[in-house]
User: Which sequence fits this backbone?
């Protein structure tokens, strides 16, 4: 089972920032926090990942709580193309097989 | 940006028939995966493949399933005798812990929609 908890859905207005929360209270020291998204009828797409420090890339920012028991994916300026299901996944770096265990994710709805 | 390519995009097959789903992973990636997603459900892990052998498989990946990397570029998933419940989207992914998408992310293909009738 997935070790993360996310809201089922969220709504946001276009051009506004979006904060997608994820709880992972049982995270271990070797778990990386990964975020993926799945646009309608497409394969999952990597968004960002981090271990302890906040991370930024061209797609998003990842804010990780100091105790690492929660994290927030931040889309700085949502567009209609960001409407997707967003998945927060813990990936154990000590597991050489690196498989991903998926939850139900958060369906992000963007209103024009 | 490098892509994982999957063919065909849609496959319709009769129950009991064999199907082969094909994937071309990113060339310098070392780990390869198959996942599936039944309509409206979660993405499920099937199998991981590294160094020309299966490294892990899920309970779903029974004797009807097999994977192969026949020529160093293609990565295939074969279902020997398809069942109705095999109908799903099948996603191939590849990964290189030291490189790859954003130094750690997995790259997924667009998927093959398998419909068993």
Assistant:
């Amino acid at each position: 089972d997935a070790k993360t908890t996310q809201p089922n859905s969220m709504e946001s207005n276009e051009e506004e920032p979006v904060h997608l929360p994820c709880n992972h209270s049982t995270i271990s020291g070797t778990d990386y926090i990964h975020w993926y998204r799945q646009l309608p009828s497409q394969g999952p797409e990597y968004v960002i990942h981090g271990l302890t420090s906040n991370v930024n890339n061209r797609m998003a920012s990842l804010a990780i709580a100091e105790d690492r028991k929660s994290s927030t994916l931040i889309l700085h300026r949502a567009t209609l193309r960001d409407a997707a299901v967003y998945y927060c996944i813990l990936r154990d770096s000590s597991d050489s097989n690196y498989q991903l265990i998926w939850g139900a994710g958060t369906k992000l709805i963007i209103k024009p | 940006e490098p892509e994982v390519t999957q063919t065909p995009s849609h496959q319709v097959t009769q129950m009991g028939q064999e199907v082969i789903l094909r994937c071309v992973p990113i060339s310098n990636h070392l780990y390869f995966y198959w996942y599936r997603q039944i309509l409206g459900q979660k993405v499920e892990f099937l199998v991981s493949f590294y160094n020309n052998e299966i490294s892990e498989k899920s309970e779903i990946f029974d004797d009807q399933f097999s994977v192969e990397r026949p020529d160093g570029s293609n990565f295939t998933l074969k279902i020997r005798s398809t069942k109705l419940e095999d109908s799903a989207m099948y996603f191939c992914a590849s990964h290189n812990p030291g490189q790859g998408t954003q130094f750690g992310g997995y790259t997924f293909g667009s998927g093959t929609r398998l419909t068993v009738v």
Remarks:
- The interface with chain B takes residues 2, 32, 34, 36, 38, 42-49, 57, 87, 96-104 of chain A (CB under 8 Å).
